[in-house]
Amino acid sequence: MTSPIISFDKVNKWYGNNFHVLRDIDLNVAKGERIVICGPSGSGKSTLIRCINRLEEHQQGRLTVDGVELSDDVKAIDAIRQQVGMVFQQFNLFPHLTVLENLTLSPMWVGKLPKKEAEEKAMHQLQRVRIAEQAQKYPLQLSGGQQQRVAIARALCLTPKIMLFDEPTSALDPEMIKEVLDVMVEMAEQGITMLCVTHEMGFAKAVADRVIFMDQGQIVEQNTPHEFFKNPRTDRAQDFLSKILGH
Amino acid sequence: MATQIFQSIPSRPAPVQTGGLLGWLQANLFADFRTTLSTLLVGGVLLWYLPQFLNWALVSAYWQPNAEACRADGVGACWGVVAEKYRLIIFGRYPFEEQWRPLVATGALLALLVASCTRAFWRPWLALLWAAVLALFFWLMLGGGGLTPVETDRWGGLPLTLLLSTLSIAMAFPLALLVALGRRSNLPAIRTICTLYVELIRGVPLISVLFMASFMFPLFMPQGVKIDVLLRVLVGITLFAAAYMAEVIRGGLQAIPKGQVEAAASLGLSYWQTQRKIVLPQALAMVVPGIMNNFIAIFKDTSLVTIVSLYELTGSLGLALNSDADWRPYKIEGYLFIALIYFAFCFAMSRYSLWVERQVNQSKQR
To answer: Given the DSSP bridges, would you call strands A60-65 and A162-166 parallel, antiparallel or unpaired?
Structure first.
């Protein structure tokens, strides 16, 4: 087996002195693997994926991403962030920049691409998420679903090896969830490594290679989606699934 | 059950607004008993005082520069004082025959300011233009190179007011940016220094800062080292203004959601790139009114340098009238004249601020 692209080795993290948010996390993600992480709120799902691009710091254990161990080394963090795209629950588009400027910002300033090339690349990504005609608008002039698709395109402009999704559809109106999920499914088919925190079980069934269930900072259970949804092994997972699927 | 077909109701125009002068009066001045009462009260006070003021200022005013005639009974405002003393008021103690120099220098400085406010000039070479105009300003004012030298303590009036406010605003703004960022830094040393600076400066009045800059500071300098009083005062005003401005900017920084910084970090932007491209543009757009407040306050606070014997516009008015027993009684007219000058500048600044607000908020329009 080739070496994993992301590897957590006994990773621990605390918020303040009391809240032990990640407990002995061991996790290996293979290149191209698509993982869905679910679990009740406060279980550490978001914190887990935010450690991967160092939006959060872990305090114990080793975390290696694309062959680089995450530490206080700023250069290493910068290098990893160019390999890891992230999509947030609240989109976090830059409201004072147009859609196109949102997309070209990082390629131009971090990737040092000339403006013209960056714009071509950006338009290509916007076409991929089917929103090219909105390039000159400002984010707040778009609907939630459109904004999230722009955010996905923005993350893709870095040509990342890994994509992180932190509840990408939780802030959307029900009618807009599908347009975002469709884009994510297409991405999944193209072989990029994906870690997605979501409660969209349909999405998990359709694309995930593995479902990880977390509770109280621990990985409680992991399995293929088929097995996880059909035969959850722990009572905690059974309870959780009965609540989110029970209506 | 058969499926019903949804039919949307077509849009109709909104009800017509009642307009015209009467409608406006009804809505704004006489809407109910209380507004009617306050309209009548305020209107009454205006009716009582306005004619008296207009009579003093216009009808029975005397317009010729003749102090004798002004002293006659029944004469109102004596505007001749402006005609008689305007050069002293506007240029202070600057040598009379050389006053074309501050005139040209002020014109150049004003042109530079207007240019800097215009979009077409927002290019990298604007910095060069500033350097050139400031060099021209100082050459004209100081002399040398073919012109008679004039010491800075002879400078005065409007040129001094404009120079002090332009330079202290231009220097205080970047300093305030750094201090505001510093107060939110992750490094405790930087945070402490910036906090101390802001708290110390805000704890003392500007007058005492100016006193220190002008009288105490030279005591600590080694023998023979002399720093021009104008420069010391300039630094004093800059440090003072920057402390207030930094707090206004910090207010804007705090309003930026954490997600913006996280998104920038996830895209690989460095700290300075994030501040410059993401945080500051949004934070500054939010605090345009507050910053313009600071700018206007600095412009008017320059009048305090009179107490350290630099006679800017307000000071030179006192200088012009106190020394002349004939005209001394007509200070009110003099003050109204310079009030008009101050108002013109401040009003221009606040109108410009509204324009800037509209520009920076374009992205918020849906």
So the answer is: unpaired
- Distance of residue B115 Cα from the nearest chain A Cα, in angstroms: 25
| Average confidence (pLDDT) over B199-210 | 92
CB A64 within 8 A of CB A239: no
Give the gap in angstroms from C-alpha B187 to the nearest C-alpha of chain A.
Answer: 15
- Looking at chain A, the number of H-run helices and the number of E-run strands are 9, 10
Mutation for A interface: B261, B267, B272, B366, most A CBs within 10 A: B267
Please say whether the beta carbons of A77 and B265 come within 8 A. Answer: no
Q: What is the pLDDT of residues B63-87, one digit of tens each?
A: 888 888 888 878 888 888 888 888 8
Q: What residues pair up with A29 in beta bridges, in sequence order? A: A6
User: What distance in Å separates the CA atoms of residue B239 and residue B362, rounded to the nearest whole number?
Assistant: 33
Number of CB pairs, chain A paired with chain B, less than 8 A apart: 70
Dihedral through CA B292, CA B294, CA B299, CA B305, nearest 10? -170
- How many angstroms separate the CA atoms of A4 and A15, rounded? 28
pTM of the model: 0.86
pLDDT above 80: residue A1: no
Contact between B346 and B296 (Cβ < 8 Å): yes
Question: For residues B185 and A153, what is the distance between their CA atoms, to the nearest angstrom?
Answer: 31
pLDDT exceeds 60 at position B4: yes
**Contact criterion met (CB < 8 Å) for B282 and A138:** no
Collect all residues from B whose CB is shorter than 8 A from any CB in A.
257, 259-260, 262-270, 273, 277-278, 281-282, 285, 360, 362-366
Q: What is the 3-state secondary structure (H, E, C) of chain B?
A: CCCCCCCCCCCCCCCCCCCHHHHHHHHHCCCCHHHHHHHHHHHHHHHHHHHHHHHHHHHCCECCCCHHHHCCCCCCCECHHHHHHHHHHHHCCCCHHHCHHHHHHHHHHHHHHHHHCCHHHCCCCHHHHHHHHHHHHHHHHHCECCECCCCHHHCEHHHHHHHHHHHHHHHHHHHHHHHHHHHCCCCHHHHHHHHHHHHHHHCCCHHHHHHHHHHHHHHHCCCCCCCCHHHHHHHHHHHHHHHHHHHHHHHHHHCCCHHHHHHHHHCCCCHHHHHHHHHHHHHHHHCHHHHHHHHHHHHHHHHHHHHHCCEEHHHHHHHHHHCCCCCHHHHHHHHHHHHHHHHHHHHHHHHHHHHHHHHHCHHHCC
CB distance B326 to B67 below 8 Å: yes
The pLDDT of residue A247:
57
CB B233 within 8 A of CB B264: no
Domains of chain B: 154-364 (1.10.3720.10)
Q: Over the stretch B25-72, which tens digit does the pLDDT of each residue have?
A: 888 888 889 999 999 999 999 999 999 889 888 888 888 888 888 888
Q: Does A121 touch chain B (CB under 8 A)?
A: no
pLDDT in tens, B315-366: 888 888 888 888 888 888 889 999 999 999 999 999 999 999 998 888 777 6
- Nearest CA to A129 out of A93, A106, A154 is that of A154
Q: What is the ipTM of this complex?
A: 0.92
